[in-house]
Design a protein that fits this description.
The protein is an alpha+beta fold. Helices cover about 40% and strands about 20% of the residues. The chain has three domains: about 270 residues, no CATH class; about 110 residues, no CATH class; about 80 residues, no CATH class.
């Protein structure tokens, strides 16, 4: 933990930590993953070389060099986020008053923040939530870019302090200069620093109160400060190893890019045949090429001749390799290949099985996401209690996350039809056996089959003055009208 009593020492330590962080392996991996999510793959910097007659390595600029980034990683991250959070999370409690207050916080902005949180953690291995209280003392949340954050932990791996830094460009004397802004958050206050170009890091003089409390309120001409008593940052880890989703599939994506682009290059470079000419009596080879392209003819001497050669491109082999790479990307990327749904006749059982890897991946982050949401809900409830002088308990709140699964609607309709027919058969069997069973047993069994509340049905029957005699016999008269015996029907009680 950084000591804040000695400012010169603090400035030196913060500067060193930022310098080390910029070149750290974690931040390098983050940048690569962010680039791949945005379609900036290694194939974009791919170059061709050859050895010339002098044995020197020279860049080949006359051959085709297609550079196409295949954004599997983008699809896998978006797929994960939408599968987990496309349906808004449900925050509920049996306390109706608390539920009313919660609905004011759990809005569309909150749902969007959660999606951005999972997306960031998938790309960068970790992502942060920053929370603050506004002028109305109401708490709000937003994502904080992990690429710009340096956490400082205590002995129990709890975030004790946070360094947040970012680079900006400003005009100084009509010249653009890079300015680094730094914030050091502690449990009680915030230190603001600034560094221009490669100059010294120092306290930011533009901040009137530096260091300042977390909240500054103004009453007439007086300023009042208040601290949260904790660092307002929550961390979501993608997995236990703190690895981003790109790590297991980057090499596979690079191989796919290379194979696909090489195939494109071959098709471009070798779409015309190669001509081998013997005894050509023209002026030079340029004339030969011109005649072949324009006249489609060429003259040769008595002993001359021309042979046409074509290059056999191993298209099928390349296609097989691309298919293998693609399958491996979805397998080790633990995603769902939507192209496998075929013509739409695939059953829901098969669809569910193909979601199994995506389910496993989402299980890892959902446990951690629930933990972060619970911490946010605790902060929200504390905020509600403070604003409204209440004593609500956050432990009564439940969190429901419903995953969005692709389904075959035709298959669903068929399943529902089968279930309905099965229920009808069961009901018929119960009614056949009803003469040998008591009314309560029959009613209870029917309620179980039809999935209705037995106690509620029984209560409604009693309110109607009907005790439910299922042992009554029915007759059909000659005119086709069904006659039902009185049975145990009794007059309804007067209200």
């Amino acid at each position: 933990m950084l000591e804040t009593n000695n400012i010169p020492k603090l400035v030196a330590e913060v500067k060193k930590m930022i310098s080390d962080d910029r070149v750290s392996t974690l931040k390098k991996d983050m940048q690569v993953s962010i680039d791949y999510y945005n379609g900036l793959h290694d194939i974009g910097g791919y170059r061709l070389f050859f050895f010339n007659n002098e044995g020197q390595i020279v860049e080949e600029k006359n051959r085709s060099n297609t550079k196409i980034a295949h954004q599997f990683f983008t699809e896998l991250v978006d797929q994960k986020v939408q599968y987990l959070l496309s349906n808004p999370i449900e925050i509920s409690t049996e306390d109706t008053e608390l539920q009313k207050y919660l609905n004011e916080y759990i809005d569309e902005d909150f749902q969007l923040m959660l999606q951005e949180l999972v997306e960031g953690a998938s790309q960068k291995a970790i992502e942060y939530v920053f929370w603050k209280k506004g002028a109305d003392n109401r708490i709000s949340f937003k994502t904080a870019d992990a690429f710009k954050i340096i956490p400082i932990y205590d002995a129990f791996y709890n975030i004790e302090q946070v360094i947040y830094y970012y680079d900006d460009e400003i005009l100084i004397e009509n010249k653009k200069k890079t300015v680094t802004k730094v914030q050091l958050w502690t449990k009680e206050e915030v230190f603001y620093f600034v560094q221009i170009e490669n100059g010294d890091l120092k306290l930011d003089d533009s901040i009137k109160i530096n260091p300042s409390p977390h909240i500054i309120a103004k009453n007439n001409s007086e300023l009042f400060g208040k601290s949260y008593g904790q660092v307002p940052f929550l961390c979501l880890e993608n997995n236990r190893q703190k690895k981003n989703d790109l790590a297991p599939i980057k090499d596979l994506i690079d191989d796919y890019d290379l194979m696909a682009c090489s195939l494109s290059n071959n098709l471009i470079d070798f779409d015309h045949p190669i001509y081998a000419v013997r005894g050509f009596e023209g002026d030079n080879l340029d004339n030969l090429v011109t005649n072949l392209r324009t006249k489609k003819t060429v003259g040769v001497g008595e002993n001359g001749g021309i042979e046409v050669h074509t290059v056999n491109i191993p298209v099928e082999a390349r296609k097989t390799k691309l298919t293998i790479d693609k399958e491996a990307i979805y397998k080790f990327g633990m995603g769902f290949d939507s192209s496998q749904t075929g013509d739409g006749n695939i059953t829901n059982v098969v669809i569910k099985s193909r979601y199994s890897l995506l389910d496993l991946k989402c299980n890892k982050i959902e446990v951690r996401l629930r933990k972060v949401i619970k911490r946010m809900l605790k902060l929200i409830v504390e905020n509600i209690n403070e604003l409204h002088e209440k004593a609500f308990d956050a432990s009564t709140i439940t969190i429901k996350i419903t995953r969005d699964v692709m389904v075959n609607k035709t298959d669903n309709a068929t399943t529902e039809k089968i279930e309905a027919e099965t229920k009808k058969i069961l009901v018929d069997n119960i009614m056949t056996a009803s003469t040998r069973l008591d009314d309560k047993t029959v009613l209870k069994t029917l309620c179980e089959i039809l999935e209705v509340d037995f106690e509620e049905v029984e209560r409604l029957l009693e309110e109607q003055g009907y005790k439910g005699d299922f042992n009554q016999n029915s007759e059909v008269t000659d005119d086709g009208v069904e006659q039902v015996s009185v049975g145990n029907r009794v007059p309804a009680e007067e209200s």
